[in-house]
């Protein structure tokens, strides 16, 4: 074997040190980037160095409320779950916040949307894909009131997710109101949120979902939580005002909801389905998509479109999606 001169050996050792330093720096950057991603998703809390800001950006809303608009409704992409932000004037309302690992993402979205406090938080029903992220939210934002269904003792969940929410509410000393049909929340001039359900005792947690309607001048939005066909039938029997231009499809587009009779009564021109990519439930179900298509309803899906934001000037509705821009 040929001997290598000392000068070349020195160069090799120096180059090796440079490679090891670069490798170490790359590993450190990867670790910190991983920590940043984990932090945004609610798994880890860590103070990151300022220079890492060049690589990580806060979650930005697709659109923000401007002076020309009466209200903005943000269907936040939280994977297989629900989270909706309503902004009207100075008021902000949050309906659900996805699973626990989505809580910090929702918080970052609210901050980027300019939300400093929440006038109302609605926990539609105590399933983890709706309430899991709420403790993060209520621990980081002042909340005036929480609205949730009143459950009989035998239906109160014993899950860790629900207990965490209860503990956070108690620690923050936030007033809790039991939802009932007919409650109204004026949010701004010409903008009002009305509770339509729950109407009667139910044996299924999906069917205790808080269903509410937002009126913005001539525009209207209907939010159905995970309410299924029995609730839809009860709403129709009660002669509740369900007609709306925008429908947040019940139960992530499951065939348990969005019956033909209910869709005919709502008569939406737009439906938004909140679901996760490749979810294990097959949401949205083909039957629901077919019913919507038969009625010429334009469908937006968070698994395909990302976050969907609808803005209203009281007369017309503009749509902007995370993946497809404005329409």
Walkthrough of the structure:
With 327 residues, this protein is of the alpha/beta class. The protein has 2 domains: 6-54, no CATH class; 71-326, 4-Layer Sandwich (Metallo-beta-lactamase, Chain A). Helices cover 30% and strands 21% of the residues. The protein has helices at 6-40, 103-112, 128-131, 134-140, 160-172, 229-237, 260-266, 286-294, 302-305, and strands at residues 71-75, 84-88, 91-95, 120-122, 146-148, 176-178, 184-188, 191-197, 211-216, 219-223, 246-248, 270-273, 298-301, 308-312, 317-321, 325-326. The strands form 2 sheets. A 9-stranded mixed sheet has the order 6-5-4-3-2-1-14-15-16, with no helix packed on it. A 7-stranded mixed sheet has the order 7-8-9-10-11-12-13. β10 (219-223), α6 (229-237) and β11 form a beta-alpha-beta unit. α2 packs across α4 (134-140) and α4 packs parallel to α5 (160-172). It is globular, with a radius of gyration of 24 Å. Mean pLDDT is 85; it is low at 1-57.
């Amino acid at each position: 074997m040929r001997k290598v001169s000392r000068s070349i050996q020195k160069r090799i050792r120096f180059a090796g040190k440079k490679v090891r330093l670069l490798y170490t720096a790359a590993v450190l950057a990867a670790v910190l980037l991983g920590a940043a991603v984990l932090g945004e998703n609610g798994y880890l809390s860590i103070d990151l160095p300022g220079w890492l800001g060049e690589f990580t950006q806060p979650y930005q809303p697709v659109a923000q409320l401007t002076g020309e608009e009466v209200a903005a409704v943000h269907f936040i992409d939280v994977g297989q779950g629900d989270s909706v932000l309503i902004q009207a004037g100075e008021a902000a309302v949050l309906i659900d916040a996805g699973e626990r690992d989505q809580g910090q993402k929702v918080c970052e979205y609210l901050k980027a949307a300019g939300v400093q406090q929440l006038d109302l938080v609605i926990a539609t029903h105590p399933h983890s894909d709706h309430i899991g992220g709420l403790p993060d939210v209520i621990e980081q934002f002042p909340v005036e009131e929480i609205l949730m269904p009143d459950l009989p003792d035998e239906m109160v969940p014993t899950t860790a997710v629900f207990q965490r929410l209860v503990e956070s509410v108690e620690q923050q000393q936030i007033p809790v109101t039991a939802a009932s049909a007919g409650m109204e929340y004026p949010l701004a001039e010409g903008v009002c949120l009305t509770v339509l359900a729950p109407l009667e005792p139910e044996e299924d947690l999906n069917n205790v979902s808080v269903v509410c309607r937002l009126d913005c001048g001539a525009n209207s939005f209907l939010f159905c939580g995970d309410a299924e066909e029995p609730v839809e039938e009860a709403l129709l029997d009660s002669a509740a005002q369900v007609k709306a231009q925008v429908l947040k499809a019940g139960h992530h587009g499951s065939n348990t909801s969005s019956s033909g009779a209910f869709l005919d009564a709502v008569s939406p021109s737009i439906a938004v389905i909140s679901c996760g990519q490749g979810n294990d439930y097959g949401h949205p179900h083909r039957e629901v998509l077919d019913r919507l298509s038969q009625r010429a309803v334009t469908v937006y899906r968070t698994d395909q479109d990302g976050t969907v934001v609808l803005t209203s000037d009281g007369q017309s509705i503009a749509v902007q999606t995370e993946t497809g821009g404005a329409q």
